[in-house]
Design brief:
Blueprint: H1 13-35, E1 40-42, E2 55-58, E3 63-68, E4 71-74, E5 79-84, E6 95-102, E7 110-118, E8 127-133, E9 138-139, E10 141-143, E11 145-147, E12 160-161, E13 173-174, E14 179-186, E15 195-202
Parallel strand pairs: 1-2
Antiparallel strand pairs: 2-3, 3-4, 5-15, 6-14, 7-13, 7-15, 8-9, 8-11, 8-14, 10-12
């Protein structure tokens, strides 16, 4: 009588992702051990003739990258902060500085590249939010984040980032200890649980580009 095969339980999505992450960590570790001696600081967009297996720090974005199969692969460096301005049991209220924080060391010399607002409970009217740098006295958005009445978020409309100012110090740039405020200019009736997403990436100073 043939031996019955043992049944194998299908992997969960978490187990599959965990396995892939482990494999990626092993691959990165192997590359580090083999190529650490040739790490360079370069601008990958303007670097000529990279070699297979080369690893570097991309200076403009400060990302760790490696070259494989004719393409640069870079570890994402963007940082997204999810900020809960009001708890889901609290009604949204208007006012400047509804939530305030100081820029920590990890975000020193970064710039705001995306923003979005959301609600836990929809409002019957529009909710409008501004992000301001109180240390510099400027709004970081050229127009407010707007959550339409009956909607949960502002994501249908792209945020308008205030990147004006100078090339070396744009209005969306932040540095250590800058005081950032979330200002609620309009609070739709019945809205609760207001929150904001802020995405930052390393500031690229045109004067310090590496050829």
């Amino acid at each position: 009588m043939p031996r019955r095969r043992r049944s194998v339980a299908p992997q969960t999505e978490f187990e599959v992702l965990s396995g892939r992450l482990h494999d990626l960590q092993q691959a990165v570790s192997a590359i580090n051990q083999a190529k650490m001696a040739v790490v360079q600081v370069v601008d990958i967009d303007n670097f000529n003739d990279p070699a297979e297996g080369m690893i570097c720090v991309d200076w403009p974005t400060k990302r760790f990258c490696w070259y494989h199969d004719d393409v640069w692969i870079c570890v994402p460096s963007n940082a997204t902060h999810a900020i809960k301005v009001y708890s889901d049991a609290k009604t949204t209220k208007t006012g400047d500085g509804a939530f305030r924080f100081s820029v920590e060391l990890d975000l020193h010399d970064y710039e705001l590249v995306w923003a979005g607002a959301f609600l836990g409970t929809t409002a019957s009217g529009t909710t409008s939010v501004q992000i301001s740098n109180r240390t510099r006295g400027i709004d970081m958005l050229t127009s407010n984040l707007v959550i339409p009445g009956g909607s949960y978020d502002s994501f249908a409309t792209l945020p308008s980032i205030n990147s004006g100012g100078s090339l070396t110090n744009p209005n969306n740039r932040i540095v250590l200890s800058d005081r950032i405020w979330i200002d609620v200019d309009v609070a739709g009736a019945g809205g609760k649980g207001l929150g904001v997403y802020l995405t930052f990436m390393p500031f690229r100073d045109p004067a310090s580009d590496v050829a």
